[in-house]
Specification:
Blueprint lengths: L13 H21 L6 H8 L3 H29 L1 H22 L3 H11 L6 H11 L2 H12 L4 H15 L3 H20 L13 H9 L2 H31 L4 H28 L2 H20 L4 H30 L5 H30 L3 H22 L7 H11 L3
Helix pairs in contact: 1-4, 1-6, 1-7, 1-8, 1-9, 3-4, 3-5, 3-6, 3-11, 3-15, 4-5, 4-9, 6-7, 6-15, 7-12, 7-14, 8-12, 11-12, 11-14, 11-15, 11-16, 12-13, 12-14, 13-14, 13-16
Length: 414
């Protein structure tokens, strides 16, 4: 038995762990790049004098492009593998990162560069099929949860980007460009696709059509739009919300937003780990139920300390757990050759779930001078997801008794 094969029936190999580490690091760096604009939006506003909606639009554009880009990138990963796609996308992301240096004094130019910067948000659809192929079913939920910790790039960006920017306006862009270049080289040598992975021979459009015809694709997309979309929405808009409503300065708001993202990151593998032991739909239902309740509390504008701080951090934990449990469900119910395509669609819709709320929050605040309506809408969506996950999805992927017996007999000699 070689290193690329499973050692035993259910233990991941050293190659599996190496690929998981490399995928997680790449996901972290590209997500940092994807979120470069959001923590600096208030600094850019000092020169650009943007409205609330214009700021929302600026931070939402990379989210939109990165989300939609996951669909073709996921399908391309099915075809060409993560060994090619990870270093390629990481290297290409360097271009918009460096273009931010001459662009942040013009709103139109920032929008254009932000559009290209969305490429960094597509690596999620590369890592999921890679990790899914290397880990046996009993460990996939936890492994995908660990990979999902790469969304901590949002937290790193929220904390370090404004601080580096205040030391030198070009510093965060140069540092990240160098880090991405180093990673792209290492990824080329250290990431390996499983030799026995199924390589689809059908055209890209056909594979996307097949994935799109699976009912479970859209069920998972809706749940992920609430869980991951909520994290992305808070990640890109929370600094603006804290600065506008609680009158924090930009650095303090960015630090608190980074804390929110960090809690979500920590609880994502916990959601995956729980899903390996409890059905992931049940984990999803409980987590979204908590989000629904706490969003109502936040809609009544509690004081920042301790009310809003506790409320937002628990919501971060619940949204993180939801993100981990939904992709544990993807691994459970999706045929292996279609994981990349399904991941692309689910990831795209999840990212779109993060694109809309900042625009809604900005528009509502501009019209009503309040954020309460936005939080009530989040509560309604989370409650709907809670009910659907528990009522419809908790039997998805369960093996029936006859199927389990047949599979057991196949493993028994004679």
């Amino acid at each position: 038995m070689t290193d690329v094969a499973m050692s035993g029936d259910d233990r991941p190999t050293a190659a599996a762990w190496r690929n998981l580490v490399m995928a997680t690091v790449g996901f972290t760096l590209t997500f940092w790049a994807w979120n470069l604009i959001a923590p600096l939006a208030s600094d850019f506003d000092d020169d650009l004098h943007m409205s609330s909606f214009a700021q929302s639009e600026l931070v939402a554009i990379p989210v939109l492009v990165g989300s939609l880009g996951r669909v073709p990138v996921g399908a391309l990963t099915d075809r060409y593998g993560a060994r090619l796609m990870f270093p390629l996308v990481s290297a290409l992301t360097i271009i918009p990162v460096l273009l931010l240096i001459p662009s942040h004094s013009s709103y139109v130019t920032l929008i254009i560069v932000g559009f290209v910067l969305g490429l960094g948000g597509t690596t999620f659809a590369i890592g999921v099929p890679l990790v899914n192929s290397w880990f046996p079913p009993k460990h996939r939920g936890a492994a995908l949860g660990v990979f999902g910790m790469g969304m901590g790039g949002v937290a790193l960006s929220g904390y370090f980007t404004p601080r580096m920017y205040h030391h030198g306006e070009n510093l965060p862009f140069l540092v990240l460009a160098i880090a991405l270049a180093v990673y792209a080289v290492l990824a080329w040598f250290l990431i390996n696709d499983r030799p026995d992975r199924p390589i689809p021979s059908t055209p890209l459009t056909t594979r996307l059509g097949q994935a799109g015809r699976l009912r479970v694709t859209w069920e998972l997309s809706a749940l992920y739009a609430i869980g991951f979309g909520g994290i992305v929405a808070f990640g890109v808009y929370l600094p603006t919300y804290l600065k506008t409503w609680y009158e924090l300065d930009a650095t303090d708001a960015g630090t608190r937003a980074a804390g929110f993202a960090l809690v979500a990151v920590v609880f994502r593998p916990i959601g995956g780990w729980l899903s390996d032991r409890i059905h992931p739909a049940v984990v999803t239902a409980w987590a979204l139920g908590a989000v629904a309740l706490l969003a109502v509390v936040q809609a009544f504008d509690p004081t920042l300390v301790p009310g809003a701080t506790i409320c937002l951090l628990i919501m971060a934990a619940a949204l993180g757990a939801t993100s981990g449990s939904v992709f544990a469900l993807v691994a459970r119910v999706t045929p292996q050759p279609q994981v990349g395509s399904v991941t692309g669609i689910v990831g795209a819709v999840g990212g779109l779930g993060g694109f809309v709320p900042p625009l809604v929050m900005g528009a509502v605040y501009s019209a009503k001078d309040s954020y309460s309506i936005g939080f009530m809408l989040l509560s309604d969506l989370a409650l709907a997801g809670c009910v659907y996950a528990y009522g419809r999805m908790r039997d998805a992927g369960r093996e029936t008794a006859p199927a389990a017996e047949a599979r057991r007999k196949e493993r028994v000699p004679g």
